[in-house]
Amino acid sequence: MGGSEHCTVERDGHTLVVTMNRPEAKNALSLPMLVGMADAWVEADADDDVRSIVLTGAGGAFCAGMDLKAMNMSQGSQYAERLKTDPDLHWKALLRHYSPRKPLIGAVEGYAVAGGTELIQACDIRVAAASATFGLFEVRRGLFPVAGSTVRLPRQIPYSHAMEMLLTGRPYTAAEAREIGLVGHLVDDGKALDKALEIAALINAAAPLSVEAVKRSVRETSGMSEADGLVRELEIGWPVFATEDAKEGPRAFAEKREARWKRK
């Protein structure tokens, strides 16, 4: 199992749980954390027994963004050497230049600001605790949200809400995030991970090849015209019907039992 001192990676059944683990710094991003996360995405995709991923934070926070001081302190470490050999590693970790083929669920407690809000946009399903805080603070610091927010956010929530979040740099409550569609579920404090694992269990019970094909189609057709998207959807979706699992699903339903998926 991968991970690092700032990123724990654990299995919960068919779910890989990735935890940003710097609670003393509200899980601000460090180089060890980024390396652990980048490796976790690859590990999840390489393991056919993993059917879903949950991303969360330790100590009652999700992620407070980049910790530039911690990044500088990592110079000369084994992690800095990894970055030298793979200069794109940090973008893969932040899910800007990498999209896992397995469904990714974000479980947010506490702060999910700056890079934390950017990471949430890369999650397919998002759960937030009642006292969670979101926001893209970069413009208030003379910076820019380079992990994808100016592209992703206006595609995921209404334009006016996206622009307000991007241009004001103000904090958003969990209730506001739910209202504008940034997150899908609002739960009691301390229950975000439980809800995320509950959703993951439903995904894990479904046919893995079908789930992965659905996610792939949604991702690959984003931005296409409807006509082009429908062509690509058929290219991705039609082969699923020729799999053994496509026969197993209806058979299990008719026999009133749980399906036994073979991933073929």
UniProtKB/TrEMBL annotation:
Molecular function, one GO term: lyase activity
Record's keyword annotation contains Lipid metabolism: yes
KW Lyase (keyword) present: yes
Keyword entries, A-Z: Isomerase, Lipid metabolism, Lyase
UniProt-listed InterPro entries: ClpP/crotonase-like_dom_sf (IPR029045), Enoyl-CoA_hydra/iso (IPR001753), Enoyl-CoA_hydra_C (IPR014748)
GO biological process: fatty acid beta-oxidation
Taxonomy, superkingdom: Bacteria
Family indicated by similarity: Belongs to the enoyl-CoA hydratase/isomerase family.
Protein's UniProt name: Enoyl-CoA hydratase/isomerase
